[in-house]
Write a structure and sequence with these properties.
By secondary structure, this protein is mainly alpha-helical. The protein has one helix spanning 2-59.
Amino acid sequence: MSYMQACCTYYHQGADLSEDLEPFLKSIAEEVTTMRNDTKRLDKEMENRHTIVNSRDSALPSCKAEEGGLQRRNT
């Protein structure tokens, strides 16, 4: 009988703990949702910036450098 009471107490305390954690878990879920939305927004913003930079790069005249990165002297 004492074993049954111990089990009942154990599960009752777990249920109480679960109820106490509910507001915290809800706030964490809201923060995660907010961060996920911010990340999506920033990702789209960066994608647009890359598109703008790439379009500007194609509009600029290209500079031709020798392969290897070092220039030879003609002397």
